[in-house]
Amino acid sequence: MGSQLEGGNTCIKYLVFIFNFLFFLVGCGLLGIGIYSKVGDNDYIDVAEDLSSISEYITLGNILIAVGVIILIVAFFGCCGAIMENQTMLTIFFSLLLLIFILELAGGIYGFVNRDEIENQLEKDFNDAIQKKYFDSGDNSFVKKTIDKFQTDFKCCGFNGFEDWQQSTYYANKSTIPKSCCKDQSDQSPCPASRDPKDFNQKGCFVEVMDFFKENAYAAAACGIAFAVLQVLGLVFSMCLICALKRTGTVA
């Protein structure tokens, strides 16, 4: 079937197609990142999932995979609907994209309103990792490796300071503080058996880690705003295209 559109409406048609092709690439990227986070070696993602008190199925990797698949499905309807000038597929695309936009908006509002509650839960989970999970989960656990990585990379120790380790199950069993807390981590160093506070990193890790994630959250928020703007444009262009097809009498 030949094109029923002319002039500016043809431009809108190809704008919708280009938008959905970019949308499709975003979906592929999110799906790939989600799969990598599940099978790859990423300590920060692993510990975020292991520390979380949320359901084992609600993890970053699973969310990225689900969002990636949904975007691929939505982009499929958008691309095919635009290039085939199919009102039904474009209407499905518009409805799904609008639903995604509403869910994103609701999620953003929920996160903003409950930000203190979320941070308190993260605080509880992080403290529990130091007090119990670091020792209880075993020497090769993701929790242990990542807490060590935090303490080494951020030059910090414990939740608020090295004293936190003295109330932990690790200290109760080892009578010492993790080596990753030491300023000097060489094999010749008396730390972590030392009792001298000067041998340990002084600042706590929770504030350092939260600052790190907040800095990255700003970049993520900027990307989210840009993505939302693209979604609004996609909604506007697709609705214009649907209206144009209705005016031409195309019912496919």
Name its key features.
252 residues; Cd81 Antigen, Extracellular Domain, Chain: A; mainly alpha; 0% strand; 70% helix; single chain
Quick synopsis:
This protein is mainly α. 70% of the residues lie in helices and 0% in strands.
Notes on the structure:
By secondary structure, the protein is mostly helical. It has two domains: 8-116 and 224-248; 126-206, Cd81 Antigen, Extracellular Domain, Chain: A, CATH 1.10.1450. The protein is 70% helix and 0% strand. The protein is built from eight helices and no strands. Helix 1 packs antiparallel against helix 8 and helix 3 (60-84) runs antiparallel to helix 4 (87-113). The longest helix has 44 residues, at 205-248. The protein is elongated and about 85 Å long. The protein starts with 7 loop residues before the first helix and ends with a helix. 28% of the residues are buried.
Write the topology of this structure:
Blueprint: H1 8-39, H2 43-51, H3 60-84, H4 87-113, H5 115-136, H6 142-153, H7 169-174, H8 205-248
Helix pairs in contact: 1-3, 1-8, 2-6, 3-4, 4-8
Structural class label:
mainly alpha
Count up the helices.
8
Q: How many strands, what sense, and barrel or not for the largest sheet?
A: none
Helical proportion, percent range = over 70%
N-to-C series of helices and strands? HHHHHHHH
The average pLDDT is 80
Summed up, the domain count is 2
Radius of gyration: 25 Å
The beta-strand count equals: 0
Shape, per Cα inertia axes: elongated
Oligomeric state of this protein? single chain
Give the low-confidence spans. 53-58
What percent strand?
under 5%
Distance between the termini: 10 Å
